[in-house]
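Translate structure to sequence.
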């Protein structure tokens, strides 16, 4: 089995949106078989695991139209063109929680849906959380965001996952990257 990526013979862009592009790529698989691959091209994203000094996790709750409900999740967002991922994580933390992270620790990067999307999610633990003071950069939630924040101890978060209150896989994955405790 070869790890050499297939090179597209033809690319047909079928949608270009604000966040991602959808393409149909005509390729030949490493085994020689032809394939019309439907690919979502995404600039990448960051996921922030904000931890209070007492170990509680800060989650955000927002309406997600694709699933038709409000969802508790970790703060996250799409990278802007040329944006450094750690700076995007700092920005998203402040925009979505209203808190500034004094420290960010890189936890890893993962593809959430590699079967059809090239989005790479970079995970960061945010600690030393504090409210902004004069002189801090301002951050504002995106126009399409209506966010509520909540602080939960780890037992409560595990219960929310078990009960189906947390259904967002990036959140479950991000929480799994934390040391036990």
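Result:
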């Amino acid at each position: 089995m070869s790890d050499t990526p297939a090179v597209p013979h033809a690319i047909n862009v079928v949608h270009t949106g604000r966040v991602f592009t959808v393409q149909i790529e005509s390729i030949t698989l490493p085994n020689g078989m032809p394939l019309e691959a439907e690919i979502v091209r995404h600039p990448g994203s960051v996921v922030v695991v904000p931890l209070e000094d007492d170990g509680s996790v800060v989650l955000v709750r927002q309406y997600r139209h694709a699933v038709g409900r409000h969802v508790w999740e970790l703060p996250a967002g799409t990278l802007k063109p040329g944006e450094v991922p750690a700076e995007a994580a700092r920005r998203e933390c402040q925009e979505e929680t209203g808190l500034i992270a004094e420290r960010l620790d890189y936890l890893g990067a993962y593809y959430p849906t590699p079967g059809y999307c090239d989005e790479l999610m970079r995970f960061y633990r945010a600690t030393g959380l504090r409210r902004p003071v004069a002189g801090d950069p301002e951050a504002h939630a995106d126009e399409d965001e209506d966010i509520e924040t909540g602080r939960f101890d780890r037992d409560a978060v595990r219960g929310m996952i078990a009960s189906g209150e947390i259904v967002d896989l990036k959140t479950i994955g991000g929480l799994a990257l934390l040391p036990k405790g």
